[in-house]
Please model this.
Amino acid sequence: MIHHAAGGRVRRARRLRESLAFYGFVSPWLLGTVLLTLFPVGYAFFLSFTNWNGLTPYMPWAGLSNYREVLTSGDTLQSLEKTLLLVAVVVPTTVLGSLVLAVLLDKRIRGRIVLRTLIYLPAVVPPVAAALIWKTVFDKDTGDANRVLSLFGAGPVSWLEGNASFVVLIIVLLWGAGTGIIINLAALQTVPSEQVEAAKMDGAGALTTFRHVTLPAISPVLLFQTVLVTITTLQTFVPAILLSPIGDSDVVTNIPNANRVYMVNVYEQFFAYSRYGYGSAMLVVFFAVILVITVLVFRVLGRSVFYAVDPTESRREG
Amino acid sequence: MRHPVAFIILVLVAVAVTLPVIALVISALTPSDQMGVDRWLPTTFRWRNIADAIDFIPFWQLARNSLVLSSVFGVLTTFSSALAGYGFARLRGPGKKALFAILIGMMMIPQIVTLIPTYLLFSRFNLVGTYWPWVLWGIAGAPYAIFLYRQFFASFPKELEEAAILDGAGRVRIFAQIFLPLSRPLLVTAFVLAFNAVWGDFVAPNLFLNSSNTTLAVGVSSGYVDTAGYPVYNLLAAGALLYVIPVVALFLIAQRSYVRGFANAGLKG
Model:
């Protein structure tokens, strides 16, 4: 009896120590999250109910008027529409493209490492340089794109103005989207080769094997990627402002209308018009949009990605 | 050759994504008087453009700022993410499930949603114009990296630390002497991702820093204009090239570990 109680106390003490250790290890992240994410988000939420201009010591209360404006302003809804169109084009292309390229790179091919490096390399090129590279290529008078067109007797096209600039924006985003290839390659290497061999023994073709063995095995990775690419594409901002024709990057107003995606609009509300309240309301609405889209992606494409076994919870696997 | 079609497709893609970079190199080496001329190649390459690009803006100063900021953030975030990843993978505590859900949710919050409100807050505490925001961001770690560490650390057998505990080792020692050395490829992956993120970031330095302490990303994108305010395209291209070289070099050097880091994290899902 006494022995038992002592054992319980020891166990409880060990549990307590482990809990303390857990909170010790996660505390930098936890404090950082509270201070640098939750607090700012809360602050933005508060500001969205005001008409603050960033200067006055008082913050005039606005009630729901900012939200009413976000949901009715043609300008805002148009920029949202453009952003969604961008997602509709970029996300499927990126996810499918990096899957196909990863499958091809997974084969035993001459110069595989070199090809992989070259194809992936644009993903490490910073957006500032990427935008500049494509501005050079798509320059109306001296760019190589129009020179190629002129070989066929077409053009010249003003790529960086009007609706054509949206095409250039898509190209810039796709060019830098190689991270998925590396992740897919890593995932493909974990597909059990016995299963692939077994399927082949059963007379399954390459495509059938891929569909019934490989694809299910890597599908969680694809889902994870789809979510991440969707989120990063929704917040497209830097390439859009840096593609504006003249070098001055501070001038948001130079951006061709076709590239005025949602975040450009937000940035403009804050820093060109000092509409901190309205800009904040736009951010809150955008966050809600992202949440809805993320949930939809999960609903449509599958349930659980984050499966890996937690050794502290299931001892058998540990 | 066993897969001719795959080979041809890959070569075509590799050429297509590399050509624009070559276009940048060409315009970086084009003499100013040939910049407006409609031709594939200039008659001569002007290598002095590189030196001129360095002199045109305070290049070394800006590069040093970028290097300091990227390294500080990279080192801090690599280690604090590893700490949190270890906590989530190997320790129990009340509320852990909820915290892990928050971590996953954090990956869904776009950086820019928090950036502008963070700017407003930091300006109240006079932190705008200093490097403190990057130190704080670094200490907070990166959700994506924490997730990778967590997946990786969770794959080790329980006996690994049980033996160490019997030997009287504390959690910190187990983490530092057993888990950290085993996760070298992942440390590289996390560092390269973090370093490149800050080196390539344009929005945060543009918002938080001023002309005296800003980074190369801002300097290159806005510095190459002549007195009339027009961009000097050939020097701009040369400057951009110089700006890209360090991150490309870092990737090439770290490539093997970097790729293995992703694989190690058991991304099979």
Residues 304-309, 314-318 of chain A have pLDDT under 50 and may be disordered.
